[in-house]
Amino acid sequence: MVKILYSRYLLLLLVLNVFYLGTTRAEMGKFYFKDFTKDSNFKSEIALYGDAKVVNGSGEFLQICGSGAYSAGRVMYKEKIKLVGEKPRKLGKSFSMYFVFSFSNDNKGDGLAFVMVRDGYNLEKFDNGSFGLLEKGENKFLAIEFDTLKDKEVGDMNDNHVGVDVGSFISVTSRNVSSINLKLKSGEKLQSWIDYDANSQRLEVRLSKLGKDKPFKPLISCPINLSHLWKEDGVLVGLSASSGNSTKSANSTQICNIYSWSFKLSTPPQWIHSEALNPNAINLRSENLIPKQKKNDCALKVLGAFIFGTACGALGAFMVLFIWTILGNRRLPVVPVDYALPAKEVDCEMTKIVDEKTIKDDEMKK
Q1: 8 Å CB contact between 192 and 207
Q2: Average pLDDT over residues 333-339
């Protein structure tokens, strides 16, 4: 009996261990730097390029670019990540990023960009590119630009906007930061959240002053399929900035600082499914993005939801019964035969006497 219970406990521990490994594996590829002091040991996980350096001020922070005719730098996470899972599922991966930054006020410069570049990108080369990025050749990139320069060549709306660039500095979509009463070049510390959901294939960017809560409504919400952009290739993530180049903003003195930075890559559960959004629908009106559903489609979805709910309920009941069997099922102790209580014998004679007396009483009454 003890051996059976012991084997069941081992089986339960094995199941829990597999579940734990599955959940922790989904959170690989993450880091968090509250600051950039020596104690944080950030240099073991991120690398500095160009003019990027650590500055000692009110606290230690990263200065990505400084003053000069052209100053550019970048900070990159050393670990290569993949936005597509391994075979056979090849599920897309989601990510969330948060960072605190600031621009020096009343100075011209290109701005700052969160970038994703392919593995093998020449991180030490800048060539006077906007945000320190290379646009030509096979330098495929994704950039979320916090642009402080109005460049008419790429159709910038102003010198205070956020845009999404895919392989080109001509933004796929952009939004005026003044619409949320913020100014990038104010000199104040700003915080930004960049979230990508692999199920809905949607990229969202939020922005606010430091100390404020994360806005419920994103500044930018853009449909894009990043798994198709790089397929199974590894990518590098980082922050890149430049203070201007010789043709657009010579002798720029804009300074860009990074105060904290975090990133988390995750794999959504396999049972979650959402209809992928069409990346070509960016220029459509929001009401056109909602598909018209037929009655048959609704019925099929209701039936599918019912089947899914029934399956989940059955699985939950099975798990409860399984755990109850392991932990709660205890057999009652069996009493040895030698100590069993003797069976009581029925007094037949007494029963017979009672019956005879009853018969005599009945005859006398008659």
Answers
A1: yes
A2: 48
Alpha helix (H) ranges present in the chain? 2-25, 226-230, 295-327, 348-365
- Which tops the pLDDT comparison, 352 or 209? 209
Q: Are 232 and 73 in contact (CB under 8 A)?
A: no
CB 62 within 8 A of CB 36: yes
Q: DSSP alpha helices (H): ranges in 188-270? A: 226-230
Instruction: For tokens 């460049």, name the residue.
Output: 151
SS (H, E, C) 173-204: EEEEHHHHCCCHHHCCCEEEEEEEECCCCEEE
Report the distance separating Cα 150 and Cα 166, nearest Å.
Answer: 18
CA atoms within 13 A on the CB side of 228: 8
CB 209 within 8 A of CB 188: yes
Enter the tokens of residue 110: 């290109």
Structure tokens at 30: 């993450």
Percent of the chain with pLDDT over 70: 63
pLDDT per residue as tens digits for the range 185-207: 989 999 999 999 988 999 999 99
Q: Look up residue 19 and give its amino acid.
A: F
210-245 tens-digit pLDDT? 999 999 999 999 999 888 887 767 899 999 998 865
Structure tokens at 319: 């798990």
Give CA–CA dist 206/191, Å, rounded: 8
Retrieve residue 95's tokens: 């990510």
* Residue 128 CA neighbour count, 13 Å, CB half: 11
Q: Tokens 């959402």 correspond to what residue? A: 274
Which long-range contacts does 37-45 make (Cβ < 8 Å, 24+ apart)?
45/77, 45/78, 45/79
- Taking the C-alpha atoms of residue 311 and residue 118, their distance in angstroms, rounded to an integer, is 41
Distances (CA, A) of 360 to 347, 350, 363: 21, 16, 5
- Asked if residues 223 and 79 have their Cβ atoms less than 8 Å apart, the reply is no
Max mean pLDDT among 42-51, 96-105, 290-299, 334-343 falls in: 96-105
CB atoms within 10 A of CB 263: 22
A 10 A CB-CB count for 255 gives 21
